[in-house]
Design brief:
Structural class: alpha/beta
Oligomer: single chain
Strand order of the largest sheet: 3-2-1-4-5-10-7
Helix content: 25-40%
CATH architecture: 3-Layer(aba) Sandwich
Bound molecules: S-adenosylmethionine
Largest sheet: 7 strands, mixed
Number of strands: 10
Length: 256
């Protein structure tokens, strides 16, 4: 086992908590599709429930998805029975060299301690000159949200997180060292609103993978302490507050 974070436990609620609104998916997906060469299949590592894989397939991308979570792949297959998926670890891909023209790593490289081995594997199975599309997940740019999450984590003893890449800059550096050209996919910004109470309820329930190492009592105690602090710091905890998350996708072109 590689120590990667499997999403088996999240499969039942993942789609309710992580999806982008349809209008933003309609902007993002064509931007990703435009980067994908069509002469060879595309591999997605950590394909999960198909949040990105299925819209890419719908736009004609010949995609193969792998994941270490059977539960997540079952959800994907419930939506698309003939999808081409396999239970496999991104650090040990069951494919020959140069099988794919491109690869996608969406919200996954931060979950893999040995993420450089996953990048080795992607470099091996994608043809020279091929493309890797990657995103770590929405960057939290809203000050109050960063503050509340940070306070909760400190109260909970600051459990180590994430096990894999900490930022897209880290991946940019690694890909540059490997001779890849680093390209940015134009950002999609998800503007919404959320209350501090709602965010704390999510943290207390252990919805986010970053909280999975915490037991129920630690989450409950940390949420209560953060509630107390936040009501002094920010006032009304039930007030809807603006949030803004940018998608931060990269298109890396492997050396030819
Ligand atoms: C946050 S979900 C992202 C799912 C999908 N890519 C998306 O953007 O919605 C991360 C997925 O990566 C999977 N995963 C974690 N480590 C992995 C590994 N080493 N190899 C393959 N999949 C992995 C998890 O089981 C989970 O389904």
């Amino acid at each position: 086992m590689t120590g990667s974070v499997s999403f088996d436990r999240a499969a039942g609620y993942y789609d309710q908590t992580r999806s982008l609104p349809d209008d933003l998916m309609d902007v993002l997906v064509p931007r990703l599709v435009a980067e994908i060469p069509r002469d060879r299949p595309c591999l997605e590592i950590g394909a999960g429930t198909g949040r990105i894989a299925l819209p890419l397939m719908d736009r004609g991308v010949d995609l193969v998805g792998v994941d270490i979570s059977a539960e997540m792949l079952h959800r994907l297959l419930a939506k698309r029975a003939n999808a081409n998926v396999a239970l496999a670890d991104a650090t040990r891909l069951p494919f020959g060299d140069r099988t794919f023209g491109s690869a996608v790593a969406s919200h996954v490289l931060h979950l893999i301690p040995d993420w450089k081995t996953a990048v080795d594997e992607l470099t091996r199975v994608v043809v020279p000159g091929g493309v890797l599309l990657a995103s770590k997940g929405a960057e939290r740019t809203t000050e109050w949200e960063v503050g509340v999450r940070r306070h909760f984590c400190v109260e909970a003893g600051d459990p180590p997180w994430p096990p894999g890449i900490g930022s897209m800059d880290e991946l940019d550096g690694e890909m540059s060292r490997r001779g890849a050209v680093v390209g940015r996919v134009e950002d999609v910004v998800n503007e919404g609103s959320y209350s501090i109470s709602a965010l704390l309820a999510t943290l207390e329930q252990g919805i986010f993978a970053a909280c999975w190492s915490l037991d129920e009592e630690t989450r409950r105690r940390s949420a209560a302490a953060t509630r107390e602090w936040a009501s002094h710091e920010y006032g009304d905890l039930d007030e809807p507050r603006a949030t803004s998350h940018s998608s931060e996708w990269r298109a890396y072109r492997f050396p030819g």
